[in-house]
Amino acid sequence: MPNTPSCVFISISLCLFLLGACSSEYNSDPASSGKSAAGSNIKVVSHRGLGCCAPENSLIAVRRAIETHGADQVEIDVRLSKDKVAVAVHDANFSRISTSPDRVAELDWSEIQAIDIGSPVDEDFRGATPASLTSILRYIEQQEAEIYIDIKTRNMADSIKASITDSGISLHRIWFWSGNNKNLWQLNRVLDSPQLLVSAPDSSLWHDPDYWQQLKDRHVVGFSIHYQGLDPAFIQLAKQQGMMIDAYTVNAEEDMAAVIALGVDSIETDYPQRLRKLLP
Questions:
Q1: Could you give phi then psi for residue 157, rounded to 5 degrees?
Q2: Shortest CA distance to 34 belongs to which of 48, 17, 53?
Q3: Euclidean distance between CA atoms 259 and 263, whole angstroms
Q4: Residue 228 to residues 7, 46, 154, 251, 253, Cα–Cα distance (Å)
Q5: What is the DSSP letter of 241?
Q6: Over the range 75-106, which residues count as b (16 or more CB within 10 Å of their CB) and which as e?
Q7: pTM
Q8: 9 vs 220: CA distance, rounded Å
Q9: According to the model, what pLDDT value does residue 257 have?
């Protein structure tokens, strides 16, 4: 996706933030903490379960994000095991999050369940293992929460559908994104009107009506954009087309405040409590 240089993002968004902070529409009490009325509908999305404070993409991370860290949604990554189980894991192998060097695609689910991803984070998490997509979706359904699924590998549509069916979760609680749009289009084959998010387009497509219609025909409901690539003009244009804007991954408080002022719909962060404090 095209990324706006960070200095440009900071200049544009800081100006918007400061202008908004001086207006009654932005903040009815200028002496208060700087919370934005415009941010009252922003969803807090906890990145990789709870990236700051628990084994990433684990069930315990998802639980803590929803129950104690103020998240509206959780974001997780999914890959396929050797026996076609959808597993919540970001990397192609387990080496970064465990002592196992094995690749996800080369292990059966029963073998993956034996991998300790907890103790490398903290001894208190010893014994935590990778979660299946099904187990996470079951929890999300029970909590009446929402989830954002980042599809990391090809040919996952059938396994994702099986997890959704087994968990009983309503499809309207799930958003999907992938670095490869083909992974998203495959979902249209097995799911009824999935909510798909794509990367921001090249500016040459911004005013192409065919482009917008093609997205809508494929059940694209919005865009997921790195926060340094946010463009106020594109945000406005997307909103006019009825599309949502998700910003990722925003961890510094000053960046959170600037992104809030841009009027996005959801913000992904490793620190959901920090973001929650900035919102009304």
A1: -55, -45
A2: 17
A3: 7
A4: 9, 18, 28, 12, 14
A5: T
A6: bbbbbbbeeebbbbbbeebbeebbebeeebee
A7: 0.87
A8: 25
A9: 98
**Token pair belonging to 220:** 């694209």
State the DSSP H helix or E strand holding residue 115, giving kind and residue range, or none if neither. none
CA 20 to chain CA centroid, Å, is: 26
In Å, what is the CA distance from 189 to each residue of 71, 179, 192, 193, 218?
A: 31, 19, 8, 10, 10
The DSSP-derived string for 8-75 is HHHHHHHHHHHHHHTSTTT-S-TTS----GGGTTPEEEETTTTTTTSSTT-HHHHHHHHHTS--SEEE
pLDDT along the chain (280 residues), means of 10: 43 47 36 49 97 97 97 98 98 98 98 97 97 98 96 98 98 97 98 98 97 98 98 98 98 98 98 96
Q: CB of 136 within 8 A of CB of 147?
A: yes
Angle at 246 between CA 49 and CA 73, to 5 degrees: 35
**Cα 181 from Cα 198, distance rounded (Å):** 7
Is residue 239 within 8 Å of 206, Cβ to Cβ? no
Q: How many CA atoms lie within 13 A of 202 on its CB side?
A: 2
Continuous segment of H or E residues that includes residue 94: none
- Is residue 76 within 8 Å of residue 62, measured between CB atoms? yes
| Amino acid code (one letter) for 1 | M
Residue 226 per-residue DSSP state: E
Q: Which of 269, 183, 189 is nearest to 227 (CA)?
A: 269
